[in-house]
Design a protein that fits this description.
Structural class: alpha/beta
Number of helices: 10
Bound molecules: S-adenosylmethionine
CATH topology of the largest domain: Rossmann fold
CATH class of the largest domain: Alpha Beta
Distance between the termini: 40 Å
Order of helices and strands: HHEHEHHHHHEEHEHEE
CATH architecture of the largest domain: 3-Layer(aba) Sandwich
Largest sheet: 7 strands, mixed
Strand order of the largest sheet: 3-2-1-4-5-7-6
Strand content: 15-25%
Oligomer: single chain
Length: 282
């Protein structure tokens, strides 16, 4: 019995990769972000712009509070947490090469069931994420997912990977909500990682349409104010954002570290190197 518990603890501490492709995902930057932070003596962690969860999946906190404004995304985490085996079997039904028609059939079903908190919807979500064009998540004005087919030979997670994520999620709670809903839950000493949709950069626009609500300059200003309030409460706050003057000017009194990442920009096929910021108060 003792041995089994030890094995599980080891899994919780493992640094894991996301199970989805996610625009603006921090997978390539996460080591650099971690090397700039002292994460000792932190018990509780909040990640309210969860996306692919690069930060959470690398970390090891006693309690994590994970949330995002995308209900289908949150459902996928919840279903993996509850039953990684069934997610794996569901995805295994899709044998590559995936036909375009199958993609659009699943997309129709996904839209019909949008927001359903079910295992089937989670399987559809992961399937679409892995086979769509660049793995982006974009909805039209009526909230329908409308990304075209992109990848006939998707790489789905192994059963071991899904089980490891499930083990890690046992110490996390999941919620579908606006980022600022964590406002009444945070306490002195908590760590908050904020990774919002990035501002549009003229013709080299960052993709930022994850949800129907657009994250514009006013949203960025509100986020900076929110971060400041959390800082005053005694929380440790880290923010990722684009390296542009509009963003820098919002964080005058914060420590700002430059880094660079390869990203898909606009509709271009290749990734290009862009500068990003790590903004922190500790
Ligand atoms: C840049 S992505 C996060 C990427 C993530 N850190 C990763 O490594 O994959 C931003 C996320 O914020 C979510 N989002 C957008 N507006 C939001 C809001 N107002 N409140 C909470 N989440 C929001 C999007 O659904 C998206 O998943």
């Amino acid at each position: 019995m003792k041995e089994e518990i030890n094995i599980d603890l080891k899994k919780e501490n493992k640094s894991l990769k996301p199970f989805i492709r996610w625009a603006g995902g921090k997978q390539n930057l996460i080591n650099e972000i971690f090397s700039n932070l002292d994460l000792s003596n932190i018990d509780r962690f909040f990640e309210p712009f969860l996306g692919g969860a690069s930060f959470f999946l690398k970390s090891d906190f006693n309690q994590s509070f994970l949330s995002d404004l995308n209900p289908n995304l949150i459902n996928s985490y919840q279903q993996i947490k509850n039953d990684p085996n069934s997610i794996f079997s569901g995805l295994s039904e899709f044998k590559p090469p995936i036909k375009e028609k199958l993609y659009y059939d699943i997309r129709d079903k996904f839209n019909k069931h949008s927001g359903d908190q079910t295992l089937e919807q989670a399987i559809r979500f992961i399937f679409l994420n892995r086979t769509s064009f660049n793995g982006i998540y974009r909805v039209n004005k009526s909230g329908k997912y409308n990304v075209p087919f992109g990848k006939a030979n998707p790489a789905f997670s192994s059963l071991e990977h899904l089980k490891d994520i499930s083990t890690k999620l046992q110490k996390a709670s999941l919620a579908f909500d606006y980022y600022d809903s964590i406002n009444n839950s945070t306490q002195r000493g908590d760590l908050i990682y904020l990774d919002p949709p990035y501002p549009k950069l003229s013709d080299t626009a960052y993709f930022n349409h994850y949800t129907l609500d657009k994250f514009d300059q006013t949203s960025q200003e509100e986020l900076a104010e929110f971060a400041q309030n959390q800082s005053q409460r005694g929380c440790k706050v880290v923010i990722s954002n684009a390296d542009i003057e509009d963003i820098r000017s919002l964080y005058n009194n914060w420590e700002i570290i430059e880094c660079s990442a390869y990203r898909f920009i606009s509709c271009k096929k290749e990734k290009i190197k862009v500068k990003e910021l790590i903004i922190k108060n500790f």
